[in-house]
Every structure is written in structure tokens, then in C-alpha cells.
Amino acid sequence: MDKFDQPELVQRIKQHDAEALANYIDLNRGQLAGFLKSITGEHLLAVVELDDLIQEVSTAALSSLDSAPFDQYEPMQWLQQIARRRVVDAHRFHFGAKRRDAGRQRSIHAANSGGTAALGLEQMLVASMTSPSAALSRDIRMVRMQEAIEELSDEQKQSIRMRYVEGLPTKEIAAKLGKTDVAIRVLLSRSMRLLETQLQDVKPRE
Q1: Which residues contact residue 196 at a Cβ distance below 8 angstroms, ignoring those fewer than 6 apart?
Q2: Which pTM does this prediction carry?
Q3: What is the arithmetic mean of pLDDT over 154-181?
């Protein structure tokens, strides 16, 4: 298939094809970047990279592909919905009232050092899956997250750590692990989906 045959990619995406979605995002990266920039204030762009937001949208889309409402939205419309939510989440993370101290102003992608690296991974993943109003449940979720991470394969752990602790882009992770960028994004999305599934019974409710 011609990699620029977007109508066929769209049809495959609507059949929940993860590789097709990853390729579609690559082909439409410029449009997605423009949309993100249009809804992201300069104050937020001063503390997060646009490329990181695109990667977060990509990971979130791949993770939720199975339940995507393609009966209501075209793929790009759906991606834009995800983008809006990610921008809100990023703004909350960096500028929310509960995160104004210096230690919490760091980017969610900031690398942890020394013995805190492992704990930092669980903290960031729990924060990304937990609403600000559900802080009470985070200790329970932290324990469950640590248990769930231990059940992942070494490759899954390595890719998640490089992405969320070291903040490496998926292309660099792919080069380090000898895989394609698409394969790494699919691996990350499936790993995150597995972690989220294992935390369903302690999922916060608004």
C-alpha cells in the first residue's frame, strides 16, 4: 500500500488497526502539531515541548483505539478531542493549585536520578491516570501500579522507563531497542493499556 493512501489508512483505523493509526499520525503530524499549538498557551509551551504533547496524544490514541467512537467522529476529529484533553491535563499538572511548589513544577517527562528513578516512574504513571480530586486513592493505586509494573516483560519495562522516566522520544527508544518507531508506540500503548486495566477496580470516580 502507498504510505500516502490516507483513505485506506482511515478505513483500517476504523477497524482498530494500531499500525495504521500510528502511520496516520505520522502523515498528519503537521496538522496535529498546528492544532495543538493553536490551543496551547505560550505559558504552557514554555514548560512542555510540542513534540512531547504530540507523543502523548499518539500514546493516548493508541491506548484507547479499541473503544474509539468512529461511528461519531473521523480519526482526525477524534485525535483533536484527545489533544484537547491532553492540553488540559498538562496545564493542570504544571499550573494546578496543588502543584505550585517547585518540586511539582517539573515536566512529567523530567528524568529522575539515583534511587528515586523507579518510584518516580510509578508516581508519574499514577498521576497520569488519576484525577486531581482522587488524591486519597493514589497510595492504593501506587502499590497496585508497582505490582502491575513487575508483571510486565523486561522490554515493556525498559521502553516505559525510557519514555516516562528519561523522557526519550519514541524514535530514540526504537533505535536503542532495534525496533521501528511504530512498533515502540504500539508497545507503549499496549503496556499502558495493560497497566490501566489492572487498576480498574481502584479507578477514581468523579
Answers
A1: 63, 129
A2: 0.53
A3: 86
115 contact partners, CB below 8 Å, separation of at least 6: none
Using alpha carbons only, give the angle 55, 18, 74 rounded to the nearest 5 degrees.
80
d(Cα 19, Cα 183) in Å, to the nearest integer? 8
pLDDT of residue 103: 43
Span 91-127, pLDDT tens digits:
777 665 444 444 434 433 433 333 334 445 555 565 5
Residues 6 or more apart whose Cβ sits within 8 Å of residue 154 = none
Alpha carbons 60 and 189: distance in angstroms, whole number: 7
Measured from the Cβ of residue 95, the count of other Cβ atoms closer than 10 Å reads: 14
Q: Pseudo-torsion of CA 13, 18, 23, 28, nearest 10°?
A: 60
The DSSP letter of residue 47 is T
Please report, in angstroms and rounded to a whole number, the separation of the first and last CA atoms in the chain: 44
Counting beta carbons within 10 angstroms of the beta carbon of residue 1, is it exposed (0 to 12), middle (13 to 18) or buried (19 or more)?
A: exposed
Contacts of 63 (CB under 8 A, 6+ apart): 189, 190, 192, 193, 196
